[in-house]
Amino acid sequence: MATSACSSLEIVRILKTEICSQIRIDRKTNTAEPKISIPLKISGLDAVLGGFPSNVLTEIFGAAGSGKTQLCLQLAANLLKTDSKAKVLIICTQERFSIDRMVSFLGDENSSLLDRIHVEYFLDPEVELHFFRFVIHNLMNEFKYSLIIYDGI
User: Is 34 helix (H, G, I), strand (E, B) or coil?
Assistant: First the structure.
């Protein structure tokens, strides 16, 4: 069962609020900490986009099977390989997260990086909405995720 349009909008609103609450402000200059850019390691896209910025909500959309999840998993792998402190939250609502698929992006020699990936999986829209309303805030405060992938709207 898919998340309703109303629930999807609430989830996006919650994610925006949580992401904004995680941005650290330098009290001396009253500016947000510098954004990092996560490289895709796809030269054409990196040249145009400069990678994906942190501290913002970026929507990737396209037809089923067009590579949206692949792109996100590649971003996660690149981030984990380049930032030893990075942590990734992956929220799946359509299919189970495949560890083997993630290892294929990381490479067998980097499979220990899986320890810095937190996966949540929801089939029930009510449980998913409860997670966004009552759980994600505490998770984000505790783990300080560098990247959140929500594969399901």
Answer: coil
Which tokens hold the place of 91?
A: 């929220």
- Cα separation, 31 vs 3, in Å, equals 36
The H or E element that residue 142 is part of is helix 136-143
| CA of residue 127 relative to chain centroid, distance | 19
Q: Tokens standing for 25? A: 């402000």
Nearest to 39 by CA among 143, 147, 153: 147
Task: Judge whether 120 and 43 are in contact, CB under 8 Å.
Answer: no
Name residues of the chain where pLDDT drops below 70. 1-6, 19-35, 55, 153
Do residues 36 and 68 make contact, with C-beta atoms less than 8 angstroms apart? no
pTM for the model? 0.81
The side-by-side arrangement of strands in the sheet containing 147-151 is 117-121, 88-92, 147-151
Of 43, 55, 57, 41, which Cα lies nearest the Cα of 9? 57
Determine the pLDDT at residue 97. Answer: 83
